[in-house]
Amino acid sequence: xxxxxxxxxxxxxxxxxxxxxxxxxxxxxxxxxxxxxxxxxxxxxxxxxxxxxxxxxxxxxxxxxxxxxxxxxxxxxxxxxxxxxxxxxxxxxxxxxxxxxxxxxxxxxxxxxxxxxxxxxxxxxxxxxxxxxxxxxxxxxxxxxxxxxxxxxxxxxxxxxxxxxxxxxxxxxxxx
Length: 176
Fold this sequence. Notes:
Elements: H1 19-27, H2 33-38, H3 41-56, E1 63-64, E2 75-76, H4 99-113, E3 127-131, E4 137-140, H5 148-161
Antiparallel strand pairs: 1-2, 3-4
Protein backbone atom coordinates (compact mmCIF):
# COMPACT_ATOMS: atom_id res chain seq x y z
CA UNK A 1 0.00 0.00 0.00
CA UNK A 2 1.19 3.49 -0.88
CA UNK A 3 2.29 5.50 2.14
CA UNK A 4 2.67 9.25 2.30
CA UNK A 5 6.18 10.58 2.93
CA UNK A 6 6.48 14.35 3.36
CA UNK A 7 9.97 14.79 4.81
CA UNK A 8 11.66 17.64 2.93
CA UNK A 9 14.56 16.33 0.88
CA UNK A 10 13.92 12.66 1.65
CA UNK A 11 14.88 10.00 -0.87
CA UNK A 12 11.41 8.47 -0.58
CA UNK A 13 9.32 11.65 -0.30
CA UNK A 14 6.23 11.58 -2.49
CA UNK A 15 4.21 14.57 -1.26
CA UNK A 16 4.82 18.13 -0.14
CA UNK A 17 1.66 18.40 1.97
CA UNK A 18 0.60 16.00 4.71
CA UNK A 19 -2.87 14.51 5.07
CA UNK A 20 -3.53 16.86 8.00
CA UNK A 21 -2.44 19.90 5.97
CA UNK A 22 -4.63 18.79 3.07
CA UNK A 23 -7.67 18.27 5.28
CA UNK A 24 -7.23 21.69 6.87
CA UNK A 25 -6.79 23.36 3.47
CA UNK A 26 -9.81 21.65 1.92
CA UNK A 27 -12.09 22.61 4.84
CA UNK A 28 -12.22 26.07 3.26
CA UNK A 29 -13.00 24.77 -0.23
CA UNK A 30 -16.74 24.47 0.17
CA UNK A 31 -17.47 22.63 -3.08
CA UNK A 32 -14.77 20.00 -2.37
CA UNK A 33 -14.54 19.59 1.43
CA UNK A 34 -17.26 16.94 1.68
CA UNK A 35 -15.73 14.99 -1.20
CA UNK A 36 -12.30 15.05 0.44
CA UNK A 37 -13.75 13.81 3.73
CA UNK A 38 -15.55 10.93 1.98
CA UNK A 39 -12.33 9.67 0.41
CA UNK A 40 -10.66 6.73 2.11
CA UNK A 41 -7.09 7.41 3.23
CA UNK A 42 -5.50 5.46 0.32
CA UNK A 43 -7.45 7.63 -2.16
CA UNK A 44 -6.34 10.82 -0.41
CA UNK A 45 -2.74 9.65 -0.51
CA UNK A 46 -2.98 8.74 -4.21
CA UNK A 47 -4.42 12.16 -5.05
CA UNK A 48 -1.67 13.95 -3.11
CA UNK A 49 1.07 11.88 -4.76
CA UNK A 50 -0.39 12.50 -8.21
CA UNK A 51 -0.54 16.25 -7.58
CA UNK A 52 3.06 16.33 -6.31
CA UNK A 53 4.19 14.55 -9.48
CA UNK A 54 2.36 17.16 -11.57
CA UNK A 55 4.15 19.98 -9.72
CA UNK A 56 7.49 18.25 -10.29
CA UNK A 57 6.89 18.19 -14.07
CA UNK A 58 6.74 22.00 -14.25
CA UNK A 59 9.72 23.96 -15.63
CA UNK A 60 11.26 25.03 -12.31
CA UNK A 61 14.15 27.40 -11.72
CA UNK A 62 17.22 26.23 -9.87
CA UNK A 63 17.94 22.62 -9.03
CA UNK A 64 17.11 20.09 -6.36
CA UNK A 65 18.78 20.98 -3.06
CA UNK A 66 20.38 17.51 -2.97
CA UNK A 67 21.02 14.92 -5.64
CA UNK A 68 19.33 12.20 -3.59
CA UNK A 69 15.95 13.82 -2.90
CA UNK A 70 12.95 12.32 -4.65
CA UNK A 71 10.89 15.47 -5.24
CA UNK A 72 11.74 18.75 -6.98
CA UNK A 73 11.53 20.75 -3.73
CA UNK A 74 13.40 21.89 -1.72
CA UNK A 75 15.28 23.84 -4.41
CA UNK A 76 18.71 25.37 -4.56
CA UNK A 77 18.18 28.68 -6.33
CA UNK A 78 21.59 30.27 -5.91
CA UNK A 79 20.26 33.72 -5.03
CA UNK A 80 17.70 33.81 -7.83
CA UNK A 81 15.91 37.15 -7.78
CA UNK A 82 12.18 37.39 -7.35
CA UNK A 83 10.64 38.30 -10.73
CA UNK A 84 9.73 41.99 -10.86
CA UNK A 85 11.70 42.83 -7.70
CA UNK A 86 15.23 43.83 -8.70
CA UNK A 87 17.83 42.99 -6.08
CA UNK A 88 15.52 40.87 -3.91
CA UNK A 89 16.82 37.32 -3.62
CA UNK A 90 14.89 34.31 -2.43
CA UNK A 91 15.84 33.34 1.10
CA UNK A 92 14.32 29.89 1.53
CA UNK A 93 16.00 27.25 3.68
CA UNK A 94 17.00 24.29 1.55
CA UNK A 95 15.56 21.85 4.09
CA UNK A 96 12.02 23.25 4.04
CA UNK A 97 9.09 23.08 1.65
CA UNK A 98 7.63 26.56 1.14
CA UNK A 99 3.96 26.84 2.09
CA UNK A 100 3.26 28.14 -1.43
CA UNK A 101 4.46 24.84 -2.88
CA UNK A 102 2.22 22.87 -0.51
CA UNK A 103 -0.74 25.05 -1.45
CA UNK A 104 0.06 24.69 -5.16
CA UNK A 105 0.04 20.90 -4.70
CA UNK A 106 -3.37 21.10 -3.03
CA UNK A 107 -4.69 23.35 -5.80
CA UNK A 108 -3.39 20.74 -8.24
CA UNK A 109 -5.49 18.12 -6.42
CA UNK A 110 -8.50 20.34 -7.12
CA UNK A 111 -7.49 20.81 -10.75
CA UNK A 112 -7.08 17.09 -11.28
CA UNK A 113 -10.46 16.47 -9.65
CA UNK A 114 -12.15 19.03 -11.90
CA UNK A 115 -10.27 18.08 -15.06
CA UNK A 116 -12.40 18.30 -18.17
CA UNK A 117 -12.90 15.59 -20.74
CA UNK A 118 -11.00 17.15 -23.65
CA UNK A 119 -12.94 15.29 -26.31
CA UNK A 120 -16.43 16.31 -25.23
CA UNK A 121 -15.94 19.27 -22.90
CA UNK A 122 -18.17 17.49 -20.39
CA UNK A 123 -17.22 17.49 -16.75
CA UNK A 124 -16.51 14.12 -15.21
CA UNK A 125 -18.95 12.97 -12.57
CA UNK A 126 -17.86 11.31 -9.39
CA UNK A 127 -19.39 7.88 -8.89
CA UNK A 128 -21.17 7.56 -5.58
CA UNK A 129 -22.38 3.96 -5.85
CA UNK A 130 -22.27 1.02 -8.24
CA UNK A 131 -24.51 -1.99 -7.80
CA UNK A 132 -24.86 -5.17 -9.87
CA UNK A 133 -27.97 -7.10 -8.73
CA UNK A 134 -29.72 -7.82 -12.03
CA UNK A 135 -28.28 -5.04 -14.15
CA UNK A 136 -25.43 -2.63 -13.49
CA UNK A 137 -26.63 0.53 -11.78
CA UNK A 138 -24.48 3.62 -11.31
CA UNK A 139 -25.34 6.55 -9.05
CA UNK A 140 -23.37 9.78 -9.25
CA UNK A 141 -22.58 12.31 -6.54
CA UNK A 142 -25.02 15.18 -6.84
CA UNK A 143 -23.80 18.73 -7.31
CA UNK A 144 -20.24 18.05 -8.43
CA UNK A 145 -19.79 20.13 -11.56
CA UNK A 146 -16.84 21.44 -13.46
CA UNK A 147 -16.25 23.97 -16.15
CA UNK A 148 -13.34 25.62 -17.93
CA UNK A 149 -13.77 28.89 -16.01
CA UNK A 150 -13.45 27.26 -12.58
CA UNK A 151 -10.52 25.13 -13.79
CA UNK A 152 -8.82 28.24 -15.15
CA UNK A 153 -9.16 29.87 -11.71
CA UNK A 154 -7.39 26.89 -10.14
CA UNK A 155 -4.68 27.05 -12.81
CA UNK A 156 -4.14 30.74 -12.03
CA UNK A 157 -3.82 29.86 -8.33
CA UNK A 158 -1.11 27.29 -9.09
CA UNK A 159 0.68 29.76 -11.37
CA UNK A 160 0.60 32.50 -8.70
CA UNK A 161 1.70 30.21 -5.89
CA UNK A 162 4.69 28.95 -7.87
CA UNK A 163 5.59 32.25 -9.55
CA UNK A 164 9.00 32.45 -7.83
CA UNK A 165 10.07 29.00 -8.99
CA UNK A 166 8.67 28.46 -12.47
CA UNK A 167 10.45 29.38 -15.65
CA UNK A 168 9.06 31.90 -18.09
CA UNK A 169 7.58 29.13 -20.24
CA UNK A 170 5.10 28.05 -17.56
CA UNK A 171 1.65 27.93 -19.14
CA UNK A 172 -1.49 25.90 -18.65
CA UNK A 173 -4.36 25.86 -21.07
CA UNK A 174 -7.89 24.63 -20.45
CA UNK A 175 -9.65 23.60 -23.61
CA UNK A 176 -13.26 22.77 -24.16
